[in-house]
Amino acid sequence: MPGRKVILTMQVKDLGEFGLINRLNAMVTGERRGPDNGSAYAFRLLVDTGDDTAAWSTAAATELCTTDTVVEGVHFTRETTPWHDLGWKSLASNISDIAAMGGLPLYALITLGLPPETDVAGIEELYRGMLEIGAEYGVAIVGGDVVRSPVVFITVALTGVRSGAPLLRATARPGDQAAVTGWLGSSGGGLKLMLEKAAVSEPAATFLREAHRRPQPAVAEGQLLARSGVLTAMDVSDGLADDLSKLCLSSGVAARVYADRVPIHPRLQEAFPDSCLELALHGGEDYLLLFTAPAPVMAQVMPALPAGAAVIGEITAGPAGQVTLIAADGSEQVVSRAGWDHFG
After folding, report:
1. Which of 133, 169, 188, 217 has its CA 20 to 30 A from that of 90?
2. pTM for the whole thing?
3. Structural domains of the chain in order of their starting residue, each with its CATH number
């Protein structure tokens, strides 16, 4: 039709597997920026993306490795998470695992499962999101794979490095205090906002959407904990109650959490006053750190942590994995493990 603008889109099937791989390889090598975290440990990248494997030389250090997969319809929808933010978040969850060990993230391998009709522009936006968070946290994408799939999935394998022993889940002891490095429940609040189309103020909506779509892994905080003598930590990905239960199970201990000490951001309280505590306990995907330490260590580390960090309770002798919530009126409730479970 005369005067009508026609927008042509390219799909994955138009490029083919190797055309897409070549296109993405060019992006990750040509647009890579940010710090090289490995240089402080004499790591040197020898073989970049495009060969059968990536390769790097190492000096004396503790190497870390983690992997995670997100599946469309299970972990995300494109209505709530745009491609660019999906790229950010896919890498953020893995960076958070490295942060929980007190480490620095290094090199990432990305596997994509894609329907043939997927728009190439969307996948490029996905990678731009990964490159953006990679630049902020010093992560280099050094390879990966692309396969045909009935739904979109993204698998990230990420390496990291730590100069000493990593922080662990299995070292909490009765008498330790339990703490978190930031606000809880904001990501869950963002998802609730988008799914329910709740009417909240624009500042609250912006804050909660950002918390869900673009979480900030606590890498600096993890290193601070390790330097300060903390031995026990994990990241909050499945919800505070569930993750604290996992930590206690690994350590053979129980925990008490005080409801009035759980840090909840004012924007979440404003948006969901009746359910903000439930979101803080069970919302998941906050990607901050949960840690335990004796009181003298905790007194040293807490003032150095960012806003929202709080001591929320203590580790006790008791049934392994049991978490008890103490309400403001002193009543007690064993907190159910209501965090994310793929097969629950």
Report:
1. 169
2. 0.87
3. 12-162 (3.30.1330.10), 177-334 (3.90.650.10)
